[in-house]
Amino acid sequence: MKRTQFTYSSYLEAEGRMFADVKAFLGAFPIKDKRLNNILLTISEAFTNALVHGNKLDPSKKVEVILSIKDRELTADIIDEGECDLSFLHGRARPEPLAEGGRGIDLIECYTDGVDYQKDDKTGGLKISLKFNLDLKISVG
Amino acid sequence: MNFNVKDAGNIAIVELSGRLDMSNGNKLKEVVKEMLQTGKSQIHVNLAAVDFVNSSGLGALVSIMKEIRLHRGRLTMSDLVEYVREIFDITQLSHIFEIYSTEREALNSYEVGVGGKS
Known about the structure:
Order of helices and strands of chain B: EEHEHEHEH
Strand order of the largest sheet of chain A: 1-2-3-5-4
Shape of chain A: globular
Structural class of chain B: alpha/beta
Strand content of chain A: 25-35%
Shape of chain B: globular
Radius of gyration of chain A: 15 Å
Number of strands of chain A: 5
Largest interface: A-B, 25 and 24 residues
Number of helices of chain B: 4
Largest sheet of chain A: 5 strands, antiparallel
Number of helices of chain A: 3
Largest sheet of chain B: 5 strands, mixed
Helix content of chain B: 40-55%
Structural class of chain A: alpha+beta
Low-confidence stretches of chain B: none
Oligomer: heterodimer
Order of helices and strands of chain A: EHHEEHEE
Helix content of chain A: 25-40%
Mean pLDDT of chain B: 92
């Protein structure tokens, strides 16, 4: 199994750094370009949610990104230090056409092979676990 | 993300490159706000060199469209790469924005009035 972990303070600019870090890690695996883009987009959406809605851009709060690849499956855990409000999952409607937000969860559910939202035992914040089946030529185990 | 702004008659063309995310989306909103303040309300955004857009970036585009409409202006876009086009389709924003295949087609549509979408 290959595993790595990144931690970021909650600044707007952290999303760009996270993107570069995750792309560099995943770049070592033979993942097709389109699939890689979809994975990066999905992790970006979960990370932005953690920064803005979880940690409310409080720089003293951290977001952890944990990536692990085993066999042909990638798991990405994105953990914030916020209040873990899961109410956004209930009765969620598609955003109004001219809404400026609310599309992130739809994109996450479109491109993942499994997603789980739960309260993180350690931080008390929200933990979003994303699973992706990878069409790898080799097995990572 | 880089912003290159140029004029084509009374149309301002904004060429974006790189990633359109939350941080860069805020910068785009500032650029368009400055344009509107100087009387430029016909704005074309060329996305040919944008290789990544997330929901925050899409939100910024919706925001500038609403601002432009408030100023009785018009927003067009063109040259979406396949991957970015797919994100617009999934979120159904391709039905909301006025999107053309090429910048030339978009600019021509200003000469003949509001044209159809590609």
